[in-house]
Amino acid sequence: MTKWTTAEIPDQTGRAVLITGANTGLGLASARALAAKGAKVLLACRSPERGKSALQQVAAAGPAEPELVELDLADLSSVRAAADQVRRTTGDALDVLMNNAGVMAPPRSSTRDGFELQIGTNHLGHAALTWLLSPALRAGARVVTLSSIAHLNGGLDLDDLNFQRRRYTPFRAYSQSKLANLLFALELDRAARREGRDLVSVAAHPGISGTELVGNMTGNHQLPEFLRRGLDTAAGVASQSAEQGALPQLHAATAPGIPGGTYYGPDGFRELRGHPKRAAISPAAQDERTAQRLWEITAELTATAPNPR
Which residues of 70-79 are buried (b: 16+ CB within 10 A; e: fewer)? Predict the structure, then answer.
């Protein structure tokens, strides 16, 4: 069977794409690939300085002029400002929203709004952004939300999302946030279908890919130098390139006929690496009752109205 690659991305001329975390890793690889096919790419980045460097790379990849959007997902005021900018820039005509950015397993810390950093950045910030951009999503638009194989280990405590009562462990919180991402993506699809809206919500994961997440994680925990180098080396041996890791989310964003409510990841052993295929969804991620409660709690915490229309 033919393995899907970026060569199969259809012509994207005239289409507008917003990618969060587009200054590095999977986001930058996705931005370059879509720009090469003619898309106008909006790079949503927390750091304007790093964003400018990425902007130059994306501009060199394709004919459409990319634009930079300053976005800090750990600050809901920044999320609202970014959504306003995107709506103005696109004239409420956005074809793809790729919720790609994320943080992985940092020491305990909080967002500006007081949420545990990983649930706040990976899930709450993206959910609010998606809802705020709802009026800009054109008929047939796709929302692609990045989850992780870590969601398989996730336990979601809806009464303690911020680890105020539970003992915080970095990977437990990361797995929870990635489970929340997948629950949100599937519920967004159900909400769109309930409302009769032509919107495709899908999810993807990169397997294990060579991005800055692992390096940032080991640096954040101030591990001994020998251990940090060992982990970095092991990750390098086990992982695939960012370009390869971005294939599932690019497939989800562009392949013709992708149905809503689906999930894509690598086709290799345990979905660690390879080319895009339908990925395994844990029973926890398929729990519609949990998804609905998370939807409601997310709206309350972010003070953002869910609006699939």
Answer: ebbbbbbebb
Is 168 noted as a catalytic residue in this protein? Answer: no
- Name the active-site residue from 168, 174, 263, 264: 174
Question: Does pTM top 0.70 for this prediction?
Answer: yes
pLDDT in tens, the chain (309 residues): 589 999 999 999 999 999 999 999 999 999 999 999 999 999 999 999 999 999 999 999 999 999 999 999 999 999 999 999 999 999 999 999 999 999 999 999 999 999 999 999 999 999 999 999 999 999 999 999 999 999 998 689 999 999 999 999 999 999 999 999 999 999 999 999 999 999 999 999 999 986 555 444 444 444 444 334 434 433 444 579 999 999 999 999 999 999 999 999 999 999 999 999 999 899 999 999 999 999 999 999 999 999 756
- CA-CA-CA-CA dihedral for 13, 17, 23, 25, to nearest 10: -90
